[in-house]
Write a structure and sequence with these properties.
The protein is an alpha/beta fold. The protein is built from 10 helices and 8 strands. The protein is 36% helix and 19% strand. Helix 6 packs across helix 7 and helix 9 packs antiparallel against helix 10.
């Protein structure tokens, strides 16, 4: 991969990387389209597909994560992706080096999934070093992840521009996610409560965050199989929690719907 990336660079081809863990859906298709528009027909679009074990703190979650490589490659062909990079592993057996961050990762997902962001940052750093992209595209649905990657690029001086694609939703409001295929029976309908909670929060501008978080938790957990992990209102730069729900801030939330853990967010 790296030899090919160096050859593209020598030939003056601009490269854009779309990092994924596979189980591609229309949200990923939108990111791939964004990548192609950025580098035009003469540029190179690389989609990486790798279920990264280092970012899973729950072995069962890693085992259950959907793997659909044949279908993923078909979608990539339909979108004229130039290369699918799907390694069997990206780590040496005795790997002992990695990347971590000590501010943005200490809250929200970082609290509920210890080691998650060190795994994310390490695998993205490795992908950047292997693909040598000029640009990389990430989805806004993983808002904290995007913020962390931007910080890594800034602090470690990667010569890469990060592009962010908007969250893509189903007709009923559910944010598209590879995990949605795990929502069986009526869990799929229950999961729409997350996007409805975001809409409800937009009616609460000027209110105390602690009051609205309590209200939204009750609203979500009216669903029989829903259990909230966190609800937080933050500034969009440093993810610092806010005491007042205000316009221009962002709500981030995570909840389990049955056995499936989902995250969502929205700009207020």
């Amino acid at each position: 991969m790296q030899r090919q990336a160096i050859a593209w660079r020598k030939a003056g081809r601009r490269v854009v990387l779309v990092p994924t863990m596979g189980a591609l859906h229309d949200g990923h298709r939108r990111l791939i389209n964004m990548a192609r528009k950025k580098v035009k027909t003469n540029g190179i679009v690389v989609v990486s597909i790798y279920v990264n074990p280092k970012q899973f703190n729950d072995p069962k979650d890693l085992k259950d994560y959907p793997r659909t490589l044949s279908a993923d490659k078909k979608l990539c062909r339909e979108e004229s992706v130039d290369m699918v990079f799907a390694p069997n592993t990206l780590y040496e057996k005795d790997v002992s080096a990695g990347v971590k961050e000590d501010d943005l990762t200490t809250r929200l997902e970082g609290l509920h999934r210890p080691g998650h962001f060190a795994g994310v940052m390490t695998v993205v750093a490795k992908l950047f070093n292997l693909v040598l992209p000029d640009f990389s595209v990430f989805g806004e649905k993983d808002f904290q992840q995007v913020t962390v990657i931007k910080r890594m690029v800034r602090d470690l001086d990667y010569p890469i521009s990060i592009l962010v694609g908007p969250t893509v939703r189903e007709a009923d409001g559910l944010a598209m996610s590879s995990r949605n295929v795990l929502l069986t029976g009526d869990l799929r309908d229950q999961a729409t409560v997350l996007s409805r909670a975001i809409e409800l929060s937009r009616q609460s501008l000027g209110s105390r965050a602690v009051d609205i978080k309590r209200k939204l938790k009750r609203f979500i957990e009216k669903q029989p199989d829903a259990q909230v992990d966190y609800i937080e209102f933050v500034d969009t730069i440093n993810l610092n929690p806010l005491k007042t729900v205000k316009k221009g801030s962002r709500i981030l939330l995570a909840a389990k719907i049955g056995p499936v853990r989902l995250i969502d967010n929205g700009l207020l």
